[in-house]
Amino acid sequence: MLRIASGARAQTRLLAGRGMRYSTAPEQEDLRKRLTSELKLAMKGKDTIKSTTIRSVLSEVYTADKAQPSPLPATGIVSILRKAVARRVSTESATQFEQASRSDLAEKERTEADFLQTFIPPLLSEAEIDRRLSEVIAKTDNKKNIGVIFKQFYAVVDRSSVDTDLVAARAKALVTA
């Protein structure tokens, strides 16, 4: 049974019997709802690959929720999804399976990664990063202090929406130019 709390907790929902709380912020609710609805669809369709993949991600999200007093924001969920994709494709699982001549398991990891990619919003383009960095640099007094530029840039742009290595490279290029 779902009940809505009153008073100062009007923005928090309580799951009766479990005592779990989560914020009703639209973007967070949207991503959580999307993950759980996809899980339900996968379970109804008896798609074990999708259901186990979503369950593993939701498990990480719930663990992160319990580790801090407030619920995990949508950016944290996106971060968990990006890490899950990286774990499955580039650095760990798929390449190790390929080295062990287990192409079937490597293909499974790639399929899971492709499925998880559908939940991740696209990264900002290099042109958009350049534009926003230029705005930040124009407002900054000390143009050579890259740390201040990063701080102001990330105050405007969410870290989960950019490739941080690309931002660092572009910021250094714009500062030296």
UniProtKB/TrEMBL annotation:
GO molecular-function terms, A-Z: carbon-nitrogen ligase activity, with glutamine as amido-N-donor
Q: Which organism is it from?
A: Phlebiopsis gigantea (strain 11061_1 CR5-6)
Q: Which UniProt keywords apply?
A: Mitochondrion
Protein name per its UniProtKB record: Altered inheritance of mitochondria protein 41
Q: Which PANTHER family would you find in this protein's record?
A: ALTERED INHERITANCE OF MITOCHONDRIA PROTEIN 41, MITOCHONDRIAL
Q: Which family does it belong to?
A: Belongs to the AIM41 family.
- Name the lineage: Eukaryota, Fungi, Dikarya, Basidiomycota, Agaricomycotina
Q: Which domain of life is it from?
A: Eukaryota
GO CC aspect terms:
mitochondrion
Give the UniProt subcellular location, in the record's own words.
Answer: Mitochondrion
